[in-house]
Amino acid sequence: MEYSYPFSTDWTTEEVVDVIKFFEAIENAYEKGIDKEELMTAYRRFKEIVPSKAEEKKLCNEFEDVSGYSSYHAVQKMKAAEDGERIKMK
């Protein structure tokens, strides 16, 4: 994809990398599917870096604007999925 990922200049390099991994996991959920546990791990780390709901919403909306992929819908599907299930967005 030809777009940039949203991030904060206040984050460390490791935090930027981990947030990008979360957005890549969202991409995978839409493009080829991803195991629930893999997405859950990426989301938990994302929430450690971005604990604020308002900031999470802002970043996810920015990502959706450039990619067309809804982090919100992917995370909702992940939360509803059974353990071991594969998340595949349509």
From TrEMBL:
First and last residue of the signal peptide: none
Family per record: Belongs to the UPF0223 family.
Listed name of the protein: UPF0223 protein WDJ61_06125
Species in which this protein is naturally found: Bacillus kandeliae
Top-level division of the source organism's lineage: Bacteria
HAMAP family from the UniProt entry: UPF0223 (MF_01041)
InterPro entries named among the record's database cross-references: BH2638-like_sf, UPF0223
